[in-house]
Amino acid sequence: MPKVTYITPAGDEVVVENAEGNLMTAAVENQVTGIDGDCGGVCSCATCHVHVDPAWTDKVGPATEAEQGMLEFEDGVEDNSRLGCQVKLTSELDGLVVRVVGR
Ligand code: FES
Fold it and tell me: Distance between CA atoms of 53 and 99, rounded to whole angstroms?
């Protein structure tokens, strides 16, 4: 399972080794500030909004149509925005860096 670095809204780095599940669940389990996962990961709250580091956007891929629908109502949306609950963590994402948008 991959190592993931989350950069919190305050600028702190939280490194999660052997992250499991998806970007939201791994963040909640490791108390990453700014990711709440209020809807439990069903793409209906956007409390897991992250910006994927530019070096990783191709590997992570773009937001799906469902995510784009949720992000439409959010502040701070950029081309590299994703909902963390929709990014499954695989070994291919080892070293991934994301910036937590928070609210
Ligand atoms: S946890 Fe609700 S949209 Fe991701």
Answer: 7
Span 50-63, pLDDT tens digits? 999 999 999 999 99
How far does the centroid of ligand 1 lie from the alpha carbon of residue 91, in Å?
22
Expressed in angstroms and rounded, the spacing between residue 7 Cα and the centre of ligand 1 is 18
- Of the candidates 22, 56, 62, 27, the one whose C-alpha atom is nearest the C-alpha of residue 42 is 22
Token pair 């994927």 in the structure block, residue: 52
Residue for token pair 């490194």: 15
Q: Which residues of the chain have pLDDT under 70?
A: none
**What's the rounded Cα separation, in Å, for the pair 48 and 28?**
9
Q: Which residues are near ligand 1 (CB < 6 Å)?
A: 24, 37-39, 41, 43-48, 70, 83-85
Please name each of the domains of the chain with its CATH number. 4-100 (3.10.20.30)
Which atom of ligand 1 lies at the shortest distance from residue 49's CA? 4
Tell me if the pTM is above 0.85.
yes
